[in-house]
Amino acid sequence: MNIAIIGAGNIGTAMAALIGSAGGDVTVVARGHRLDTIRRDGVSLDDRGTLHAAQVTAVTALDQVHDAVFLCVKAQDLGAAVAANAAGIGPETLVVPMINGLPFWYFYGAGGTVPFSDPAGQLAYHLRPEQVLGAVLLMTVQMTAAGRAVSTNTPTLSLAPVVAGADSAAISRLIDLLCASGVRTDLSADIRQQVLVKLMSNIATNPLSALTGENLAQIGRELSLRSIAYQLADEVRAWADRMLGRSLPPNAWLGDLLLDAGDFPTSMLQDARAGRVLELDAICRAPLALAGEGAMPCLAALVAQLDSADTFPLTGAPRSTAVERLLFLTSLERNSE
């Protein structure tokens, strides 16, 4: 299969290095300095001391149809990325959105839509529901200044068609290719459940880490931060049960997950430190809109704090002073009552 990866950030680089180093035919869509770096040096991933490196084709936009296209951009950039690379997506191309948050396809087949996910209608225009694969990736990745991806765990990916009528033979070939590349991949029996489990952990950690500057293990170790993470998870759990009929893991599971993750900065914390736009729409605002006003007070208060750039600027050093944290926690507790 010929594989295209749109986006050369943490996840895109890691996937390109794994597939490319295993002999896969990989084209990476990148831009600016990142495009120049890949053309010169290729892509590489340091997986706990094991180096995966490959020379891949790097382009500014796809100009020929590929068998599978991985969308490795932020959720808010999906529509523009698909539109810009429409020439690489044929009617039978498998499209794999590797995103955090509540994905645009979640209500495919059920008649609903995900707020904020496709404001310009570009995804609906360019993609057939039958060619979209739901994806849940579990992988911690950071990027060095030199452009090398660094991971501390084995990538685990679950895939599944999001509506009936998908090409099952092509999906099987893609899963075989990924497994041969070192990505532990399975065909999920319930991809929407897995999306919600990951969404709960994202909501409980990503915005909190971006605001306080603390990594996953620090949130798990510090009682005050862990308490806020649990409040956020409680709100997601209640919404999923009430509106979607889904049961999600308890807080004890979440606490173990935080400690097991180690001193790893969430993707949103990495974005905050770099001054990039945060994935608040997909991770936070979509669930808030679906749950309804007042249903998630802790999450709403946290998003409001993140939006208050004068109080907590989203660039520079981590916000970790005792005064700032006390003000933050106090405001959350007051707004969540």
TrEMBL record:
Domain Ketopantoate reductase C-terminal residue range list: 190-298
EC identifiers of the protein: 1.1.1.169
GO cellular component term, pick one: cytoplasm
Catalytic activity of the protein: (R)-pantoate + NADP(+) = 2-dehydropantoate + NADPH + H(+)
Domain of life: Bacteria
Single Gene Ontology BP annotation: pantothenate biosynthetic process
Keyword annotations of the record: Pantothenate biosynthesis
Sequence intervals crossing the membrane: none
Enzyme type, top EC level: oxidoreductase
Residue span, Ketopantoate reductase N-terminal domain: 3-102
InterPro entries for this protein: 6-PGluconate_DH-like_C_sf (IPR008927), 6PGD_dom2 (IPR013328), KPA_reductase (IPR013752), KPR-Related (IPR051402), KPR_N (IPR013332), NAD(P)-bd_dom_sf (IPR036291)
UniProt KW Nucleotidyltransferase keyword: no
GO MF annotations in UniProt: 2-dehydropantoate 2-reductase activity
UniProt pathway: Cofactor biosynthesis; (R)-pantothenate biosynthesis; (R)-pantoate from 3-methyl-2-oxobutanoate: step 2/2
Protein name, as recorded: 2-dehydropantoate 2-reductase
Gene source species: Thalassovita taeanensis
Lineage of origin: Bacteria, Pseudomonadati, Pseudomonadota, Alphaproteobacteria, Rhodobacterales
